[in-house]
Write a structure and sequence with these properties.
Blueprint lengths: L5 E5 L3 H13 L3 E5 L2 H10 L4 E5 L7 H8 L7 E5 L4 H9 L4 E4 L4 H18 L4 H4 L3 E4 L4 E4 L2 E2 L4 H11 L8 H8 L8 H18 L5 E4 L3 E4 L5
Parallel strand pairs: 1-2, 1-3, 3-4, 4-5
Antiparallel strand pairs: 6-7, 7-8, 9-10
Length: 230
Amino acid sequence: MSEQKLVYIIEDEVKLARLLEDYLMAAGYQTQTFYDGALAFEAIQQRTPDLMLLDLMLPNMDGIEIASQTRAFSNVPIIMVTAKVEEVDRLLGLEIGADDYVCKPFSPKEIVARVNAMFRRLEMLGANQVDAITSTVAVDENKMTVVIKGQPLDLTTLEFQMFAMMFNEPGRIYSRQQLMDRIYNDHRVVSDRTIDSHVKKLRKKIAVVCDDELIQSVYGAGYKYEATAH
């Protein structure tokens, strides 16, 4: 590891936090531990770490509140740690901006593996794709939902299909015909203007929650998704 990554451990179980410290430091990470949610959030505002291990239940400020408020100014990777196994809590942890979650009890080795994997994914995506992995944009194809910076978009089925198609292959240029063939699979006859109209409406909905031009026009070719505006 060329330089030590800073990992905040925000966990009120002292023995567990110290165990995580030991394992992460042995893996080459720099760590800082907080047992109080409010104090942790103050520290995040002063110095944002490279990654956060964030417990759900904390004194003075819970993990959900920390994550949602952090997302207002940072895309730092967040791995939620929770003793609650209810599906609602798991989904909520992801919807408010977490990138991953792990349920107690767990092996400290698993946490180290999750942290390593998160940094590898960030490196593979590169600078232009960091926002995509740090949950600036989250797409759930099973529920047909798009969440940008913690805010859900109210999309029609066609708008979702179009967005998901481009999101899944960032940088790839899709012609209007390719978009029509995918979202109108009943082979109805539609014009280029129909696709342009859908894109225009989709962009308006994105603009409400995000300044980045995620759906970009390529003159004479079509449209593409880019994680950040250039």
